[in-house]
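User: My instructor asked us to take a sequence, write out its structure as tokens, and then describe one feature of it. I'm not sure where to start. Here is the sequence I was given:
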Amino acid sequence: MHESRLRVLSSLVLAGGLSMATTAMAADYIQAAGSSLVFAGSYQGQAFTGRFPGFSTRLTFDPAQLATSRLDVTIPLASATTANKDYDEQLRGDAFFDARKYAQAHYVATKFRSLGGGRYAADGTLTLHGISKPVTLTFTWAAGAQPVLSGKATVRRLDFGVGSGDWADTSLIPDAIAVSTKVVLQAAK
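Assistant: Let's start with the prediction itself. The structure tokens for your sequence are:
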């Protein structure tokens, strides 16, 4: 009898230890070189793309432990560039990002879902131009020594007050702006 209790107790301790080890598997990552954050839209029917070269990402992620995942992205708005000087001045100015007043945008997601087939969704909040709204990032995850998160989202610029005055006219610039990212990651130290 004593031996069977000892086996049960040992099993419980082992199961508890494995459970804690599984919970602790979510790894912490920081952004590495080779990452990109791109936005795309059109102006009077002509497509344009831009990027935020100064963005930074912190991620806690394990596909088997989505409940412990967290994505935190900081985007310095003054770094926005379309490689068109006229567009860039307007973009960083008062009518759009107002980068002097709102230096950065911030995206934080703490709710993650599996979409199947190696695809995931991060439901988070984007704070842009002083306004916070929900935004969902759908992404794929490529594990490895330097994992890669590749994702897409749609941001409705007018929800954030981006593009005021004449620029609020969606026949000039559509409301929906496509955002895509490729984040190369490395283990956080």
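For the description part of your assignment, you could build on this observation: The mean pLDDT is 89. Try explaining in your own words what that tells you about the chain.
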